[in-house]
Amino acid sequence: MGYENDRVVSGLICGNDLSKVREAVCVQVEKVYDSCREKDCIEDARVLFKNPECIQRLLSRAINVKVRRAEVMDVYADIEPVPFKRGFYTVDVKFFIRVTLDFFVPRPNGGTRIVTRYGVVLFDKKVILFGSEGSVKIFKSHYVEHGIDTPLRSKLQQDNLPISKVEVAEPIALNAKIEDILDKCFDDCCCIEQVHRGLIDMLGDDDDDGIEVGDVAGLGGNNFPQRRVVVSLGLFSIIKLVRLVQLLIPAFDFCVPNKECVAATDENPCELFDTIEFPVNEFFPPQKFDFPGALEQEQLMAEEMNTHKKHHGHHGYND
Hints:
Blueprint: H1 2-6, E1 23-46, H2 52-61, E2 64-81, E3 88-106, E4 112-130, E5 137-138, E6 141-142, E7 150-151, E8 158-159, E9 163-168, E10 172-181, H3 197-202, H4 213-216, E11 226-251, H5 269-274, H6 280-283, H7 294-318
Antiparallel strand pairs: 1-11, 2-3, 3-4, 5-8, 6-7, 9-11, 10-11
């Protein structure tokens, strides 16, 4: 029992715990050789749609558009060595961001209705990170009792070449607007091919079932200028270069779980439900003075607004 009480478990440790290190352990891990963080404001990025023709008919009638939500569907990254800069690599990153748009369309008999459509925004960026040098191939095999070990095929082999990793938070939807354009090079159909079929299918169908016949009667064709949708998004990301290496680290012990599992079976669903506290905040959302950090954020925004006003006022006076 004394041993159990004296064990170091996962979580915060104190100075006395450091004296309980039992051994130095060699582990194979992905070591981060270099990383950077990015705060990108993607301004007026063109939205691509699965069916541009249907969207053009909708745009011919829409009077406004709002971006409701943005989410990262996929990220592509390509690593290339930097010429004459040993150990450094360029990381080209392409973000595929799905946006949910609400189009405001006037009804023929008055009033306005909202038509929701989905599009995709492409965003590219390039960074330079240190990834070191060296290359080995790693071959593995599974142990087979009383027989010849089974080698893993080439598709499961590994190496220690640099690996790019991109961590990204869900984008912040800032703004959306409809633009009138005359240059056909901006037509969506020219660029939707940049998105692979799997992501296009995730956008859903942009058919005309959300628009009444009267909404598009006499509209479209070549009598009206082409229009497009652009959005502005805020994107936070962390880009890393890692390598698979062996590291020597101090270890306290094996990670033996120190708590019992909570079972959720058909026999005791109500017992498990009884352990859940009543969600008071869901019914009564916390007020500003109860919300963590709300007052501080309000004061900070007020200070930024005053600074912004003084800055513009100063320029206006000089002009």
